[in-house]
Amino acid sequence: MKKEVLYVQSYLLNRLTSFLYKNGFVWMLPVILSKSTDPLFPDPSGSVIAVPEVEIYGQKLFLTQSMIVHKQYMISQGFDRIFVLSPNIRVERPERASTGKHLFEFTQLDFEIAEFDDIKARAFIEKMLDSTLRYIKIDMNIEMKNIHSSFRIPKPPFKVYDYRDILAEYGENWEEMLVKSIDQPVWIVNIPRYFYDMQDEDGRWHNYDLYVPKYGEILSGGQREYQYDKIIRKMERDGINRSKYTKLLELAKEGRLRPSAGAGIGIERLVRWVTDAVHIREIQPFPRVPGENIEL
Ligand code: AMP
Ligand code: MG
User: Fold this and answer.
1) Rounded to the nearest 5°, which phi and psi values hold at 81?
2) Which residues pair with 111 in a beta bridge?
3) Is 45's pLDDT higher than 90?
4) Nearest listed ligand to the Cα of residue 265
5) Residues 273/277/279/281 CA torsion (nearest 10 deg)
6) Which CATH superfamily is 3-153+223-282 part of?
7) Other CB atoms within 10 Å distance of the CB of residue 9
8) Is 191 in the pocket of ligand 1 (CB under 6 A)?
């Protein structure tokens, strides 16, 4: 990998975490093994083929796919703003090696804000990206000149598109076509997916993904469900095994889950976009590409 990539990555991590810290967030540590991990289902862009389990001390535990359940737990415990740099294991289909953007081990900067809705969350994320990237060409002058002198610093607010409209306009290959047609990041909203993403009475999903020019999705997030009856109904609808979410459901039943919104940003995808890497493998010193053997 190019040395500059890691220097740019360090810069981005420093800017992102400092921004969150200055904005009152508590930085928690990740869990790698747990009883409840993100089902990642249903998701129109998902392709996970297995959720690895580890048996340890007589308990069956999952490798973390994302820490969404733990974020909702922390919010329920009275932490209003939390974030974590969370390693995620996702057994993506081997064919995804050729997309240039899929790994089977990657890191999310995952954050959650109590009492926020989707609109506030998007505005907050735009502010965070602006603060992270605004001075990159000055602060990382040499690195950016060497690897990506034409990087276009994004200027929020970003345009917002409804998932259904994008699908109707571009068809199944919408992501590929969309990212060729934009020169600023854009939001895609109202995506039918996970039980924990808020859906209102009209069926509208209060979630959002951020797509960047040329490279596609770098962030997914949403306003969350916190009411027991609704969560149960959605789990049943989607065929989610409730026994994997007993703690979350217990909190919901006791009325202790709180309204919140948040998101996860894929660090490798962010770095790939900023450093203009052809394949995401170029971002990892120890590449974790679906279907490929690892060296170290
Ligand atoms: P999700 O909530 O599933 O969309 O995951 C949050 C973010 O993590 C995505 O927007 C991507 O930036 C990143 N991400 C998800 N899956 C992968 C993967 N297989 N390889 C690399 N990054 C990923
Ligand atoms: Mg996503």
Assistant:
1) -140, 115
2) 83, 263
3) no
4) 1
5) -100
6) Bira Bifunctional Protein; Domain 2 (3.30.930.10)
7) 20
8) no
Q: Is the pTM of this model over 0.70?
A: yes
Which three-class secondary structure state does DSSP give residue 279?
coil
Ligand closest to 47 (CA) is 1
Mutation choice for ligand 1 from 9, 67, 90, 129, CB with most ligand atoms inside 8 A: 90
Give residue 112's pLDDT band: very low, low, confident or very high (50, 70, 90).
very high
How far, CA to CA in Å, does 28 sit from each of 223, 243, 251, 296?
A: 20, 26, 20, 27
Q: Cα(88)–Cα(252) distance, rounded to whole angstroms?
A: 25
What is the average pLDDT score of the chain?
97
Per-residue model confidence as pLDDT tens digits over 47-100: 999 999 999 999 999 999 999 999 999 999 999 999 999 999 999 999 999 999
Q: What are the extents of the domains in the chain?
A: 3-153+223-282
Nearest CA to ligand 1 atom 4: 220
Q: Which amino acid residue places its CA nearest to atom 14 of ligand 1?
A: 266
Which of 16, 72, 101 to mutate to test ligand 1, by most ligand atoms within 8 A of the CB atom? 101
Residues 6+ apart with CB under 8 A from 90: 40, 48, 65, 103, 104, 105, 106
